[in-house]
Amino acid sequence: MKEIIDLLPVLLVAILMNIIAGTYFNICSENIDFSWKKLTSGIVKAVIASGMFLGTAYCFEKTDLSSIGITPSFVMSSAISLYVGKALISLSKILGIDIKTK
Questions:
Q1: What are the mean pLDDT values of the chain's consecutive 10-residue runs (102 residues total)?
Q2: Does the CA dihedral 63-65-66-71 come out positive or negative?
Q3: Which of 2, 1, 4 has the alpha carbon at shortest distance from 77?
């Protein structure tokens, strides 16, 4: 459980980076009007997704599935990687760097 708690601030920073970069790109680069509804929807989505990652990490910790390579740290690192990756994609768009994504 300590692993999960120790990684919570990192996950929060990753989520905030994604939200800020996406908001900036949409408003400044794409000239999309700011929408509280869209921002709130994105925050709710991030809370739900991170809650699912946290719950999964907790379940794997309590059932000790480390024998198959899944640890709470792995699950939390996956969540952090997801949000940092999304933030980097937005940052590349802000800087005008073309990155192919699916």
A1: 85 91 86 89 90 86 78 88 91 82 67
A2: negative
A3: 4
